[in-house]
Write a structure and sequence with these properties.
Layout: H1 2-8, H2 24-27, H3 42-46
Length: 63
């Protein structure tokens, strides 16, 4: 989904799927950016990362 979205908006990027604490990829210098699958992105903010751009998808699911 992320790869298609980036291509659709003209961004040439190599997308690598990571599981777990993806925010560490920035600190480990293995990624320039991460895409988070949760709306709040609270964990990304907690570790000092900046959230940018519009969401790729929104969900209307409620618990």
């Amino acid at each position: 989904m992320v790869e298609k979205h980036l291509a659709d908006i003209g961004v040439d990027a190599r997308v690598i799927k990571l599981d777990g604490s993806v925010e560490t990829a920035i600190r480990l210098d293995v990624a320039d950016a991460v895409a988070d699958v949760v709306e709040s992105a609270a964990r990304l903010r907690e570790v000092g990362l900046e959230v940018f751009g519009d969401p790729v998808m929104r969900s209307d699911v409620t618990s």
